[in-house]
Amino acid sequence: SHAADKLPLFDNGEAAVKIVLPKKASAGERDIARELAKFLDESSGARFEIVPEGEAAKGVFVGKTDLATTWGLTKKDTGDEGYVIAVRSGEGKAAIVGGSDMATKFAVYDFLYRFVGCRWFLPGELFQIVPKHTSLAVEDCEIVEKPAFSPRAYSHIRRGRSPCYPGNQDPQYGSERWGLRNRISADGRGQPRYFSHNLYRIIDFRKYGKTHPDYFPLRRGKRFIPESFREQNWQPCTTNPDVIRLTIEFGRKFFKENPERWKWFSLGINDGGGWCECERCKALDVPGRTFRRRKFIASDRYYHFVTIVANALLKEFPDRKIGVIAYASVEPKPEKIDKLPPNVCVYITHDSSQYHDWGYRDKDLEFDRIWKKVCNNNLYRYDYYGLTWFVPRFFPHIIAEDARRMKKMDIHGIFAEECPAWPTVGPMLYSAARILWNPDENYEDHLRDFYRTCFGKAEDPMKDFWERQKNIWEKDRDGRWFEGLNDLRAQVALYSKDDVDYCDRQFDQALSAAGNDMVIRQRVEFFKVGWDFAAGYIRESHLLKELDKEDSPEKAARIATKVLLSMDKRHKFWDEFKQRKTFLSESYVWFLDGLHRDGFWEMRTQKAAQSALASAAMELGRTKPGMIKEIIGQLEAANAGADVIEGLRVARSLTTGNRPPNLLKNPDFAPDEGAHPEGLDWSARGAPAGWSTWKLKTGKFRFKDGVASVRGTDNGVVIQCVPVKPGEKVIATARYRMRPGPPATGLMTIRWKGADGGWLVSTKKKRQGIHMVTVDCKKSDHWRDVFAYTTVPDGAAQAVFMLGAKDQKKDDVIEFKEPYLGRRLEPQMNADGHGCVLGCHAQTCFERVLAGATSTLATHGMTVLNVEAASCRFMKNQEGSSTLAPRSNSL
Fold first, then answer.
1. How many CA atoms lie within 13 A of 855 on its CB side?
2. Measured CA distances, 633 to 464, 566, 628 (Å)
3. Any idea which of 202-216, 257-271, 521-535, 660-674 has the lowest mean pLDDT?
4. Among 301, 300, 349, which residue's Cα sits nearest to residue 324?
5. Helix residue ranges per DSSP H, 375-421
6. pTM, whole model, 2 decimals?
7. Cα(102)–Cα(740) distance, rounded to whole angstroms?
8. Which of 262, 447, 670, 804 could form a disulfide bond with 717, CB atoms 3.0-4.6 angstroms apart?
């Protein structure tokens, strides 16, 4: 039995009410009625019937029914995103109605949240909770809900079939149901097309590029005409009278053709700088303005343009809005304009994640107060909750505190780039959705609900994991706009070894606590996947720090091996991980894949590990040759580092004395007379035969007792040129000694010249620049080896071999001896078909140990021949190659 003040919904598998729709229900009302029936069916085991008004005495009335009007619910002050839920058990009825179809959907999902206990923590069925009830009755009530901010938009929520969400789209809005279920604005309001990058559409390069170049920015005396819509690092000439006229005409046409759906017209700048340098435009600027490391501020010229356009459209369309984004070079308010027209709405860009720094936060708040006066209180927020971080970037407490401040300051709405990395920050994005509706709620209650409901017995370790992530984000440091964007080093720098170990333990404990509950295990493992991928990078960062400090060749080799094994494990992990696109956005996959395969991190990490191993292989080859064999075995056993394995063999083989002839003339730096290589600013003064020197500004060179010394140079090298042919393999080594201490860097570099004597330049689209192979020399008081192995690129006629340094102080010195540049020859086979990996003529060589291995090295400037190891025969014409990107000033 049920109490008299409760409306029974179902009892023992039987529905007690029907779902009632208006006689002329909209498509949205019919859709949400089906959603209500579906979840009630699942919770009760009953079947709930949907009928039109007039066919049921008792029921849950959904939408703008006559009952909602009779009860006076449609007159409540809810706006078009708010709603009313009313239950009157004495009449056997409940009414659910919103100010719009979208708001009615919010109301139904809130009804299910409050009274049935449904939860949609993350998109997808794994994190969808529908409690089972034997019976259920709803207490009498009248709940009026209105959001604190309107709109509340998430960036990826409306991206069609984007794999950031599992594709459960609302048929009315084309937005993901997860957002509607958590009351995120779903009908397109507040999306960037209302206020963001739009000038490139108005001044269309296809329409005006050839006929009116004066519409486009003047740069260094020439008009810049973009060639595609992807080029957005430019702005039109905003003082050109025709540009102003065309913009007004564009806005007028836009409003006339979109009288209902589109209430805003965007005048947002393009996504970048590229401002016009004509005299009219520059005359409107305030000289010397800067803001947060931005050296140029265009606010006055831009908002002058906005004012003219907005005033023109205000006369004809007084009820419509002009949206702009205060972003990048136009984020600060204009100094010469006290008030913008009343139809201008400003979305100000803030990175609230940085509010762990209270000084940074207070500057933003003051910025808001200033902007509110300039834009007549028409202020909105553009924020960055995701920012394509791949390590957990967890700050729900900051979001909650900031939302309360925004409500108090009467910030109207918010657009958040969530770039939903669900496996790393899922609970935060859920909590944020709830808090943006009502900042007065306690975000910790939402998180506790998340942990308890999702993880059951594994609640505590999962809660502790996220709490640790929150504390990591709170670590003391200065706030920095876009911290960590495209910068893996900044992202992983927040984590100590203890942090990583602690987080690992929480997942171990959570899985143990989950026991045989497969649903809880799947939820835990979902987040563990995201953490494990991030933790791989964090561990590598700590190994690289150890490697940089380690002076022992033996210890350095072991650390470098760990780095390479970690990288290989991470590569394999990512190949599987990126297939889980259900919860990853395309931009997130692209971003991580770029970092994983081609990013600076990948290159830097591989280079550091490979260089350390190669140099150690030469040193240990003299003292502990068995250790190199052991490392090769470890890499082979893990099926990892096939490229590095061959590099180790080549480096080690050099220590046997079986090496091709040295192509360098006078490797002892003897002061004999002879020719010197010539180049721009190269000097033969004081250089031994076959060598020249070059320096950018400062530096001294000395040659004595077989040693070349470079002292006090900002950028200087000793140089020799050697004839080569494209496709040849060359081996470069030297021994060096450089006293430890910042900031100097020692370098061994190989660059290439063409037949015309000019520097060889890469023509690959993604790798424009000078062909170069550079290996850093690690600081050391004793003599060490540096090693490189590469393929001569197409078009090269000369290898330019250089030894030198950068950024030395006045008394800093690096010394080099025993320089070597060898060409791998076609091997001379003996009678039984054996030969050396270096192409040596010796009939007996340690390379017989290659039995059973075949591999190719083709990574970042180090390439190796293919080996048919069973007989040590060489496979011709199957070498791979690549080069390192340039990293020093051109000579």
1. 23
2. 40, 16, 9
3. 257-271
4. 349
5. 396-409
6. 0.83
7. 66
8. 804
